[in-house]
């Protein structure tokens, strides 16, 4: 059994008496969830859309979850910062807002710090989060299961499941959740890598396109004035500053104007 952090002072909930058919059903749900997260990166979907699907697969794979959220963090120095999150239900969105924006405490934050699953069976009287727990209990939500998403040595986020019943997550649910969290972490991590690589590629492409247009504008100015490339570039900068316009836009306008004049001369 994976190690996990239980609610202090609260007895471990008894394992549900499951028939062989029910155990097989749980295994099938876990397999379906794992198959789902294994396939979503291949579709090259946006990260937010992928996160949404992982959260939905978590509800399918982990017994007892009535709503789930997936949180992704980014590090600024040594401090993790919430980057984005996705939820399967509005009540989870409200809970996450209380956790991240209002109180700064809760099972997700604890699980990412401890690097192990965190369980609560009665949020309203959980001493670990006195402010968060009271807020959530008043919403009628009493159980939580948070699973850190770990790739290598890095915690990249967490899956957070909630239920209205007390003691909804016994060890069986934690075990299945831990099995789901590993592949889910890899899927989210790879999707973020792909998204960042694509963003960097787009930035480089735009930079190269901008450089090509600026070089063309410099050539046009040199043909008109007989000056050096440095003098032409300085003139472009002055025009950009005077018009409060981007250098790329100034250069593009100059090239387009030169093309129009060349076409007019050709027709004439």
TrEMBL record:
Read off the PROSITE patterns from this record. ANTAR
SMART domains in alphabetical order? ANTAR, GAF
- Is this entry keyworded Transferase? yes
Q: Which keywords does this chain's UniProt record carry?
A: Kinase, Transcription, Transcription regulation, Transferase
Residue ranges of domain ANTAR in the record? 194-255
Q: Does the keyword Transport apply?
A: no
Q: Which GO terms describe its molecular function?
A: kinase activity; RNA binding
**SUPFAM superfamilies, sorted:** CheY-like (SSF52172), GAF domain-like (SSF55781)
Question: What name is this protein filed under?
Answer: GAF and ANTAR domain-containing protein
In its UniProt entry, the species of origin is given as [Mycobacterium] manitobense
């Amino acid at each position: 059994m994976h190690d996990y952090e239980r609610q202090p002072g609260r007895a471990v909930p008894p394992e549900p008496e499951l028939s062989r058919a029910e155990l097989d059903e749980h295994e099938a749900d876990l397999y379906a969830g794992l198959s789902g997260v294994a396939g979503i990166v291949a579709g090259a979907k946006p990260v937010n859309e992928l996160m949404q699907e992982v959260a939905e697969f978590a509800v399918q794979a982990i017994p007892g979850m009535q709503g789930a959220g997936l949180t992704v963090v980014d590090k600024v120095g040594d401090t993790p910062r919430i980057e984005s999150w996705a939820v399967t239900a509005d009540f989870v969105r409200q809970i996450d807002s209380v956790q991240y924006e209002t109180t700064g405490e809760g099972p997700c934050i604890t699980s990412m710090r401890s690097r192990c699953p965190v369980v609560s069976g009665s949020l309203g009287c959980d001493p670990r989060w006195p402010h968060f727990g009271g807020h959530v209990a008043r919403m009628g939500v009493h159980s939580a299961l948070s699973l850190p998403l770990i790739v290598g040595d890095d915690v990249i986020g967490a899956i957070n499941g909630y239920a209205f019943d007390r003691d909804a997550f016994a060890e069986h649910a934690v075990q299945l959740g831990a099995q789901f969290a590993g592949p889910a972490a890899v899927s989210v991590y790879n999707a973020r890598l792909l998204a960042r690589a694509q963003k960097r590629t787009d930035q480089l492409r735009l930079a190269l396109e901008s450089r090509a247009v600026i070089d063309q504008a410099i050539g046009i100015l040199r043909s008109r004035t007989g000056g050096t490339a440095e003098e032409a570039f300085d003139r472009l900068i002055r025009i950009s500053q005077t018009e409060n316009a981007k250098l790329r836009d100034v250069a593009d306008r100059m090239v387009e104007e030169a093309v129009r004049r060349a076409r007019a001369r050709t027709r004439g």
